[in-house]
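Subject: Protein entry, chain in single-letter code together with its fold tokens

Area: Proteins and the way their chains fold up in space.

Attached in line: The record itself begins immediately under this heading.
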Amino acid sequence: MSYQVNGAAIEADEDGYIVNLDEWSKELAEEIAKAEGLEMTDDHWKVIDFLRNYYDEFQIAPAIRVLVKNAKKKLGPDIGNNKTLEAMFPDGAAKQGCKIAGLPKPTGCV
């Protein structure tokens, strides 16, 4: 599987997660979101930026509990809650959010 961005093929695994994390870009995130059936909003980008910063700091993609807890602290209670995150990322905030953010599949995601 691969995503097409600016004429280049970006390789992804069978679940749609990119293979080379260094190939991530906002353009690629838009393509992944489109493939996931999502239209990115400012709030989506806040979550994506949060996920990428979390990964940069801890070298691990956060599981959903960690995501909700830390998003509430960093992004506020309007975004950092299960209901809002699930509405934004219907296939799972951690799983789908990390895919769009160009990160590995979070630990514990099936």
